[in-house]
Design goal:
Layout: H1 10-17, E1 29-30, H2 33-42, E2 50-54, H3 60-67, E3 72-77, H4 83-92, E4 97-101, E5 117-122, H5 125-136, E6 147-153, H6 154-161, H7 171-179, E7 180-188, E8 193-194, E9 201-208, H8 218-230, H9 236-239, H10 247-253, H11 267-276
Parallel strand pairs: 2-3, 2-5, 3-4, 5-6
Antiparallel strand pairs: 1-8, 6-9, 7-9
Bound molecules: S-adenosylmethionine.
S-adenosylmethionine (SAM) binds next to strand 1, helix 3 and strand 3.
Length: 279
């Protein structure tokens, strides 16, 4: 029996099913169920929420979520080798775990989930940022989820919570902080995973704000920020040249000096500039 449920410890499960980790699928497994239960707790009260988990793998975090009382978990896993193990977990928690074999980038999970919805995942590094950007950039806000509790490489986590003037500040910080409260809630050493990755990891908690922090058109803001940070060392009057023939006037209208660089400009000013570019 394991520390948190009546199922066998994960090392035994992995050995019995021959689940050797595959690098191409970003597989670094969490085998300590006390730790996965702790991560599940950082997502808040799960008893009245549906949880979307991307990449359950052998199910360490899935078991943490279920042991913490998640009302319903939809687990989306690409690797068919994990399905028998996940089926055993589903059997131990009747009616509370649905497993779908799919690429999370192709699946629309919404038809299978009932709000309120929390997303909790130890993301595969190769698709983690792309999924995050998608979850942060729907046209309409609030999004389908109330909160995202996500494991990233620490360097990515730091880019999400970065403030102006720091090296990590850029597109990810602005997209995240415009519409969510984002903070790092846990850092983990490589040894917490099997096999250990080369770098540290961190769990980021993003809570959706009811409305964006400052008004701006999402499409304009996204294009603006992408362009501004594409050449982050360049002055904005140069980096944003193609956006508008009178970009210097619009920068000034937003309270930004045309000679400023993107890394020094606050979220509030980027939103003001997005509004100034609207007409
Ligand atoms: N949740 C498990 C844990 O914490 O031990 C495994 C985490 S591992 C970092 C990432 C998982 O995502 C792997 O099980 C991998 O097979 C799966 N995965 C990789 N790419 C995927 C994709 N595009 N869609 C769904 N799952 C994917």
């Amino acid at each position: 029996m394991s520390a948190i449920d009546d199922l066998p410890p994960l090392r035994e499960v992995i050995a019995a099913h021959g689940l050797s980790a595959r690098k191409a699928l970003g597989q670094n497994f969490l085998l300590d169920l006390n730790l996965t239960a702790k991560i599940a707790r950082t997502a808040g009260d799960l008893t009245r929420a549906d949880v979307l988990e991307v990449g359950p793998g052998p199910g360490g975090l899935t078991r943490g979520l279920l042991a913490q009382g998640a009302r319903h978990v939809l687990a989306v896993e690409k690797d068919a080798r994990c399905l028998p193990v996940l089926a055993e977990i589903a059997e131990a928690y009747p009616g509370r775990l649905e497993v779908v074999q799919a690429d999370a980038l192709d699946l629309d999970p919404l038809t299978r989930l009932t709000p309120p919805i929390k997303v909790v995942a130890n993301l595969p590094y190769n698709v983690g940022t792309e999924l995050l950007v998608r979850w942060l950039t729907p046209r309409a806000w609030p999004p389908f989820w109330d909160s995202l509790t996500l494991m990233f490489q620490r360097e990515v986590a730091e880019r999400i919570v970065a403030t102006p003037g720091s090296k990590a500040y850029g597109r990810l910080a602005l997209l995240a902080q415009w519409r969510t409260d984002a903070r790092i809630v846990m850092t983990l050493p490589p040894g917490a995973f099997t096999p250990p990755p080369k770098v540290e990891s961190a769990v980021v908690q993003l809570t959706a704000l009811p409305r964006p922090r400052f008004p701006a058109d999402p499409g304009i803001l996204e294009r603006l920020v992408a362009r501004a940070f594409n050449q982050r060392r360049k002055m904005l009057r140069g980096a944003l040249k193609g956006l508008s023939p009178d970009v210097e006037d619009r920068l000034r209208a937003a309270g930004i000096a045309p000679t400023d660089r993107a890394e020094a400009v606050s979220l509030e000013k980027f939103c003001a500039l997005a509004r100034a570019l609207e007409h």
